[in-house]
Amino acid sequence: MSELGGLIYTPQRASGEAVSKVESHTPRIQAPDKVGKNTVFKVRVEVGPHPNTVEHSIRWVELYFSEEGRAFNPILLGRFVFEPVYAEPAVEVSLKLGKSGKLIAVAYCNLHGLWESSKDIKVE
């Protein structure tokens, strides 16, 4: 069995049939490039457009932070579960960081697996 990282699709690692799923499955992270130290800022993560039926939907998104200089990464910031049909796969959270690092979003589609994206955040 492969390590978990090898089972997660990204735009760079997608091949074969997965290439056609990149746009509709990769989570998009909207956040500032730079933030003030320990200053609250908003981050939005969304997936899609994507089908939202019981048979085919984005079931959850997890948001992590990999902090520069931290011995053990990543930090799980939140897990957001979406009920098919009723909830769209989009979430906005307020964060406060003390150090620079990388936000990582992982989304799960019940038919097409795990999809990941990331965004660097500079703390000034």
TrEMBL record:
Keyword annotations of the record: Electron transport, Iron, Metal-binding, Transport
Entry-linked SUPFAM superfamilies: Superoxide reductase-like (SSF49367)
Segment forming the signal sequence: none
Residue stretches making up the Desulfoferrodoxin ferrous iron-binding domain: 20-117
Family assignment from sequence similarity: Belongs to the desulfoferrodoxin family.
GO molecular-function term, one example from the UniProt record: oxidoreductase activity
InterPro entries: Desulfoferrodoxin_Fe-bd_dom, Desulfoferrodoxin_Fe-bd_dom_sf, Desulfoferrodoxin_SOR
Designated name of the protein: Desulfoferrodoxin
Entry superkingdom: Archaea
